Structures are given as C-alpha cells and as structure tokens.
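User: Predict Bax inhibitor-1/YccA family protein's structure from this.
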Amino acid sequence: MSNPVFSNSDVFGEPRRTARGGATTAPPRGQAQYGAYGAQAADAASLQNMYESPSATPVDTKRLTYTDVIMKTAGLLALLVVVAAATWVIAPGLWIFGMIAGLVLGLVNAFKKNPSPVLITLYTIAQGVFLGGISAFYETQFNGIVGQAVLLTLCVFAAALGLYSSGKVRVTPKFTRFLLIGMVGYLLFSLVNVVLVWTGVLEGWGMRGGTLGIVIGLFAVVLAAMSLIMDFDFIKRGVEQGVPAKFAWSAAFGLIVTLVWLYLEILRLLAIMQSSD
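Assistant:
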C-alpha cells in the first residue's frame, strides 16, 4: 500500500479514470505517452524556473536584518532628540514626569514577549521629555556640558561598535559574568548613595563627590559600553538565527535604553569633574 498522503494528493497522486461499474481504465496509449511527456516537460520547466530564481533574502522571508535594526534605531533616536529639544525650550520642568513614565514604560516593554511599536515609541517620547529637562538643568549649571556629553556618547558608541566588529572584544561567559556583577554592584551603590543624600546624611553628590566619584563614574561608563557590546552580540545572534523581523523593535528599544544610560552617566561624570575643579 502506498503512502495515503501522496496517493490522495492532487499533486502527487496519479490521474485515474473510472469506467461504467466503477472499474478503473487506463487512458489510450498515445494519450498516456503524451500525458507522461507533458508532465516531464512541466517538471523540467518548474525546476528550471527554481534554479533561475534569485535566492530568497531575509526581507522576503520576513526575518530580522541589520537594516531593520538600524532604521528603527535611527528613527527612535531622531524622535528622542526632537522631543528632548522641544522639552528643553518649552517646558524643562516636565522632566520628572518623563522620568516616571519612562521608568514604567521601560519595565513594561522589557517584560513583553512580543515587541509593541506603540509602547516603544511612547517610551522614547517619555525619555525625550526626561532628557530634555535634565539636560537643560545641567547646562544652566555647567555651560557647554551637554554638547560634550553628546559627543562623548557618540564616541563611546562608535568605539564599542568598532571593537566588537573587529573581533577584539568578544562576549564570553567571563565577559557576561563581569558585566552582571558590575551592574548589580553599581546599582546597590547608587541606591545607597541616593538614600544617604535624600536623608541628609551626605550632601551634594554624596559618595560620588571628589576622586571616588570620578572613579565610580568612569566605572559606570565602562559598564554602559560593555552593555552596548552585549546588545550588539544579541542583535548579531538574532540576525544569524533568523528571528522574525518584528524583533527589530526590541533591538532598537534595547539600544535606546543603553544609550540613554550611557549619556546620563557621561553627563553626571562631566558634572562631577567640573565641580571638583
């Protein structure tokens, strides 16, 4: 008995003719030969068309590409800059609302299994409001500091991308462990410092002041740069594994989060250094 999947298929099954009484009869000899020849010719033509057709690209298969990630990241960055500039000029005092909304939307997007372009866009807008207001505050205290922070952020991003692309820096288990331990330690330090400042135990920058503050700031910038390299590695693996194209939004969201963190750390580091002069 042949495989019923093939025998009952319109594609793989052989054509049958039923005579009176239900008997199956074969077609005339010449017609059978012509039908066989026609089927062979059709198969040959189909194979030829398959060989001559161009290979399917990731765009055709709706898989993640580097172009998708670049375009969506560039679009979100442009939106963030426009919103930040508008907030700086119109209402810098709204930065606190942007910070809270950005924190909430960041957590929501981080834990969603499927990316939401709307929520990611709203997160970017909230971060633009936050960065615009906080940047205006720093600029009034330290003239020219925002331009320096933006330039240094771009330089660190380019350096991290160059090192990763060249293969001189690779994401190994040791690299990942160091980054994880460093980020947890830095988070705990930051929380303790904030509590000490808010409760009045310490003043100004708290434990971030002076030489220690500069060292901690440099360490935070290194962590943010390492996080960028980790982001690049995630994106590379996603492209190589052929994940769906919709996850370009997740990749862009991850890069925006890290870039915002990097910019804030550089901005704070520059402020601490100028305060120490």
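Residues 66-276 form one domain.
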